[in-house]
Hints:
The chain is mostly beta strands. Helix content is 10%, strand content 44%. The chain has one helix and ten strands.
Amino acid sequence: MILTGRVVSIALLACAALAACDDAPPPSSAPPGTPAAQPAKSGSSLPAGMVSAVSSGKTSSAISVHFELGATPAVGMSMPVKVAIVPHRSFKYVRAIFTTPDGLQLADGRLYEMLRDVEAEQILQHQVTIQPTQDGIYLISVGLETESDEGNITRSFSIPVIVPAGAPAAAQG
């Protein structure tokens, strides 16, 4: 019974974190029809299925992070996590580092290398590959560094990942 109460409590916390996500990006300040200056722009809107990462503050008005898991994570199984970084104003540069806690390995995509002269509303795509080593609720931390006329600012975002107990595990080799 104690384990069930713990699992329910953790699930409720995860739901509360996800409910705090705001999928709607702020209104664009860029004039309509502005051409893309960076090759990283992949379109004018986020891919369907992406949701907002949880910001540690009210920073999503300047830049936001969105993600899509695409499948239910399982212990021992690698899976990609699609990430979109959307600056809502121009920056001299944007770069990011992704970290994970124990129980969730980051197999690939730890760094989003510095991209210079980033225009507002560009969708900067990235992908990380995770591999859960045990069930639980985890947060992929995203440290997002930007530089603008206001100076260098590092913002923090979290991507929640729930690895359910009893999900099929990979065969041990």
